[in-house]
Specification:
Elements: E1 2-7, H1 11-17, E2 25-30, H2 33-39, E3 48-52, H3 61-69, E4 75-80, H4 85-88, E5 97-100, H5 105-120, H6 125-133, H7 142-151, H8 158-166, H9 169-179, H10 193-200, H11 202-213, H12 224-247, H13 252-274, H14 293-303, H15 308-316, H16 328-338, H17 344-347, H18 349-357, H19 361-373
Parallel strand pairs: 1-2, 1-3, 3-4, 4-5
Helix pairs in contact: 7-11, 8-10, 9-10, 9-11, 11-13, 12-13, 12-16, 12-19, 13-14, 13-15, 13-16, 14-15, 15-16
Length: 374
């Protein structure tokens, strides 16, 4: 049995959501924090907390922190009147996600699906606890939310999407820069946002918008300058990964996925540094007590509702488990991190031996030759 904890003074909300609760879920509702604390059991294992912001008005930040500590492994969602940044920024360290106070049955089901998807990720218990303890998580940028809303419409219009994106001059500049760079591999110049969208495709647009707009908050431990450096590193990794994917016979869509997944690995590095973890090279394996950037990215993207189209390659990028014939996107990401480091001593004997036996050996040699010649 899985449990949803709803803290809201609106008694009708629980009645509205109950019919949308699957059989394996139980909804527990309280109209005050005091009522919940009075009945809280130390071994309770709620999977999802949904809490109305209005319930927090009489609590100090310390009390809010202590409340969320009672639910260390729950996805914590705050219901707010609207998702304006000034409202949610003060609660970023205690809540994973924010939703409209007018939570619909469909929105409720989507939250349950995200929780379920997180549980399907193959994290060991210690790593899962680390990931849930991350505090400085970025917000999904407002423009990305608008783009997602438009993409959910089966009749999404490219020109309308372009007008939304063009409202953000930084995003527009980055999108056109990316479209005209070697990372995407287009044969002609891309002169407008609508042309860029047409060439990149609607299926990848939301992921690309999120990846290009994520930046550290002003109050985080990672500076804006460092955030820009991580973006540049992400694009460099994307260039190498895309080259490997193309040499291995990947189609255009796979090559685009490699680019976006590379940028999301950079996002994982950004989140780790914002949470006080040390800066690490892309080919560097973090110690056991520290989460890997790609797993952080998988966790947060799943939390935000991204499909496994992006998270599976990130989860599959295991340095010690290069398959003889694995996921082309995942293996491209893995090997791109090691392309500049081609010696057997750097790769490690086990990976080097596996690489020689894999179907990628000849392609690896070609890619290394290209990198050295540049």
């Amino acid at each position: 049995m899985q449990y949803v904890l709803l803290l809201s003074s609106d008694q009708q909300l629980a009645e509205q959501l109950q019919p949308f609760c699957p059989e394996q879920w139980q909804l527990k509702s309280y109209t005050s924090v005091a009522a919940y604390l009075g009945q809280h059991e130390s071994d309770a294992e709620e999977d999802l907390l949904i809490m109305d912001q209005a319930m927090l008005h009489d609590l100090t930040m310390s009390e809010i922190r202590n409340l969320t500590l009672l639910l260390p492994m729950a996805v914590r969602v705050m219901l707010v009147p609207d998702c304006q940044d000034e409202i949610v920024l003060q609660y970023l360290q205690q809540f994973h996600s924010f939703s409209s106070r007018q939570l619909s049955g469909t929105g409720f089901r989507a939250l349950l699906q995200r929780v379920q998807a997180l549980q399907w990720l193959t994290f060991d218990p210690a790593l899962r606890r680390q990931l849930f303890s991350l505090q400085d998580l970025p917000l999904v940028p407002r423009i990305a939310t608008e783009v997602k809303g438009m993409l959910d419409d089966p009749d999404a219009d490219i020109e309308a999407l372009a007008r939304i994106i063009e409202q953000d001059t930084t995003l527009t500049s980055r999108l056109l820069q990316l479209a005209n760079s070697p990372y995407m591999g287009f044969s002609k110049d891309t002169s407008s946002v609508s042309v860029a969208i047409s060439r990149m495709g609607l299926n990848l647009l939301y992921g690309l918008v999120v990846a290009l707009t994520l930046e550290p908050e002003a109050t985080s431990r990672c500076s804006a300058e460092r955030g820009q450096q991580i973006l540049r590193d992400s694009l460099q990794h994307a260039r190498l990964a895309r080259k490997f994917c193309a040499l291995a016979g990947g189609d255009h869509e796979q090559q685009e996925e490699v680019v976006i997944c590379s940028m999301f690995i950079g996002f994982g590095h950004l989140v780790l540094e914002c949470n006080g973890y040390p800066s690490r090279q892309w080919h560097e394996t973090a110690p056991d007590e520290e989460p890997q950037a790609r797993l952080v990215a998988s966790f947060i993207l799943t939390l935000w509702g991204f499909s496994n189209r992006f998270t599976d390659p990130l989860m599959a990028t295991q340095l010690q488990d290069l398959p003889e014939q694995g996921s082309l996107v995942a293996d491209s990401l893995l090997l791109a991190a090691w392309l500049p480091q081609t010696g057997a001593n750097i790769l490690g004997q086990r990976l080097w031996a596996q690489l020689q036996k894999s179907s990628y050996w000849s392609i690896w040699a070609q890619a290394c030759t290209l990198v050295v010649s540049e």
